[in-house]
Amino acid sequence: MNVQEIKLYFEQLPTAEQENLLSELSSVNSAKEFQLLKVREYQLNEKQGVCPHCGHEKYVKAGKDKAVQRYKCKKCHRRFTPYSGTWMAHIHKKEKLTDYLKLMKQGLSLEKTRKLLKINKKTAFDWRHKILISIKDTYEEEFAGITESDETFFLKSEKGSLNLKRKSRKRGKQVKGKGISKEQIPVIVSADRKGELSLVVSAPGRISKEDIQAAIGKKINKLTVLCSDGHVSYKSFALNNNLEHHVLRADIKEFVSGNYHIQHVNSLHSRLKKWINKDLFGVATKYLQNYMNWYRYKEKYKSVNYLKEVVKSTCVNINAREDYIYAVNNYY
Prior knowledge:
Layout: H1 3-12, H2 15-34, H3 39-45, E1 59-65, E2 68-73, E3 79-80, H4 97-106, H5 110-117, H6 121-135, E4 146-155, E5 184-192, E6 197-201, H7 209-216, E7 225-228, H8 232-240, E8 244-247, E9 256-257, E10 260-261, H9 263-279, H10 288-300, H11 306-314, H12 320-329
Parallel strand pairs: 4-7, 7-8
Antiparallel strand pairs: 1-2, 2-3, 4-5, 5-6, 9-10
């Protein structure tokens, strides 16, 4: 039976049967998608996890509660579930998480997400940041071959703060004065030609050699070929690390020199700013690094099963709940 025949058969059914069939199909699809959230349970059953309370590797199954497997640690004797400590802990509407992750991939605002899933906006915010705080621990590979690096700037934002120490300003409005000030937050964007990407938020104002070292120092090797603009900090960084360094000077309209350019990261700057400022309507500076991690993840897994990779890599972070509570209450 092809699609057209199925549609014709469906149209001939009584209205009540049509509604029942749609409900059953929706339940089957939801159940299938919900299996993604059991990745952590599978890892624990295969003895690939640890106790979220003490970190001990030995634990045993200890029955089920509402169809959720429970475990007991052999060291601290405390019980836990596959969700304990992860970003899924204390979330009551887990059946909506799969759809929520799909909407996150699309980059929808909290307001649009709230309307589509019929949840509270505060709930949508909490879910997003619990997931984002888990993404920070995902593995990053070293840069290979030609690597571009350049910084872009975001205006310092205290969005959502109830204790502003300055007069509030309209989102998108620029600071007064010329040049780079402490009101501008730099993001060092680096990428090689194989797709490895790094986005690191640095201290306010102009970047220094130390900022670059902290951002990409652990990701380079002797075979890394650095391409950057004429900023003196990149020159010092390349010299200290004995890197082959190619400088592109925009002030004399030198944008490409053979195979060397920084057009890939400049293109990333443009897409990144559109995503943050227009699609997401701006984000608070204290959460900016989390959003950079998210964007890197979206870019890295855009051609594979994004949903499965997000769940697989983030649910192993058993400190996610504590990290989230810290992030909400601190400016880091």
